[in-house]
Amino acid sequence: MSRKIAIANQKGGVGKTTTSVNLAAALGSMGKRVLLIDLDPQGNATMGCGIDKYELTRSVLDVLVDGTPIADVIQDSSASGVHVLPANADLTAAEIELMSMDERESRLRQSVDRLGDEYHYVLIDCPPSLNLLTLNAFVAADSVLVPIQCEYYALEGLSALLDTIDGVRDAVNPELVVEGLLRTMYDGRNNLGVEVSNQLVEHFGDQVFRTIVPRNVRLAEAPSHGLSIVEYDRSSRGALAYLALAGEIERQHPKVSEPIHSQSAVSKNHAESESSPKMSAENPAEV
Description:
The protein is of the alpha/beta class. The protein has twelve helices and eight strands.
């Protein structure tokens, strides 16, 4: 069985896309097959995986609006074992077009369900708002991973997000749960960061991942090269944190199994299709 995890927080700048890209790469480096769905019109996860969002001929918009099979749209990322369903600014039109469609909140789930057990993990990078795209992610997902910045106002909006998850669970996806709260941008030298971290553990207990993602220069540099931190500098503190997070998630889901087929329809279609141009990733200089 595969595990579908939406990565969401309506507050911007908390490390949501950083977590999506690097968690996907970390799981891929552990031998897992991962599909990363970029559901943010900014397309940052797409670029962070080494795919040029400006050169896309098809994107997640085609899947949501036209019902194009995911197999016809996915691309290989720079990380081993990771496929990407890319996005760009065209996705801003999706909400308007979806509003007039039947089952508009379930369009992504219908497409993802057709994949069966092709992937061990499907990660969905959500936009920084609670809109129809985020709702599609929550309906398609088994759980929601919430990155939270260890700074002032960290808890702002968290209750609204948790209420939304409860609402989706009650209305359309009774299996949806909170995967966990991930503390990001942590600086142990900062008293406020330590205080916020302690508050999260105090209020949410076991729902908080043990892994803490630190502030890390290498982590900030990696996207400019179209690489995950695991590829850019595997020995960095940022890489070690996301590898640890991948390990936590693996331990939480021991029943995630191998794909049913060695080469499924998705793999075959993808291998035969013409891939869109990618960004060239230069070798990063050591610092």
